[in-house]
Amino acid sequence: MLWSFNSSRLATVWAGFSFKWYGELLRDDSILDAAWVSLRIAFWTATASVVLGTLAALAMTRLRRFPGRTLFGGLITAPLVMPDVIIGLSMLLMFVSLGEVLQIQPKGMASIWIAHTTFSLAFVTVVVSSRMAELDRSLEEAAMDLGANRVKVFFLITLPIIAPALVSGWLLAFTLSLDDVVIASFVSGPSSTTLPMKVFSSVRLGLSPKINALATLMIVAVSVCAFLGWWLMSRSERRRRRELQVARQA
């Protein structure tokens, strides 16, 4: 972070404090375009992973005896133990086959999104299912005894309790997608270069101080988002505890 404010191109020579490289970074359209692509893919990847991961966690923790449960759980969590190269290659072969059948361009932002969602889904499922396994089922049963149906119980009882796990899973999936370079290298198209791919190609051609500025901005952004997530979850947890205490006293 310190060297991002160095006016010299050489990391070994301190030539004075300057915002020069931040200006150069903001004038580099290729890096800005790649950053915008990565942010969009990461946002939709995290959102889709939370939705699908929550549904998968519900199936694994609530439907304990449905046929193929073991196979379903194994398929969902398989990306956790698979190398990124294997995932990227398998997704590439799938998209190429679909492109030949449907006569479409198989690689682009959509293909990166699908590949990242497939990879991140496993992490979100583990996080959410762990929280749901610790959930006090008596709260749901009490709500159902009072006349609430399963859908209402989920949105009014279950969802607020597992909200911290959903936020954690969303942030984890967002980070995994934003950081990925291996899988995206297999499934990206010519107009869908992500920020990690752009940085990797730039480093191979020679390290520029603009990369230091970019890394500093990303560290600051992630730190702020992590702090906000922690603050929101802490506030939600304190409010939930107060509500439970009031309910018990009543």
From TrEMBL:
It comes from the Bacteria. It is a multi-pass membrane protein. Keywords: Cell membrane, Membrane, Transmembrane, Transmembrane helix, Transport. Residues 35-229 form the ABC transmembrane type-1 domain. Its main location: membrane. One of its GO terms (cellular component) is plasma membrane. It is found in: Cell membrane. It holds the Pfam family BPD_transp_1. The keyword Cell membrane applies. GO terms for biological process: transmembrane transport. PANTHER family: PUTRESCINE TRANSPORT SYSTEM PERMEASE PROTEIN POTI. Belongs to the binding-protein-dependent transport system permease family. CysTW subfamily. This is ABC transporter permease subunit.
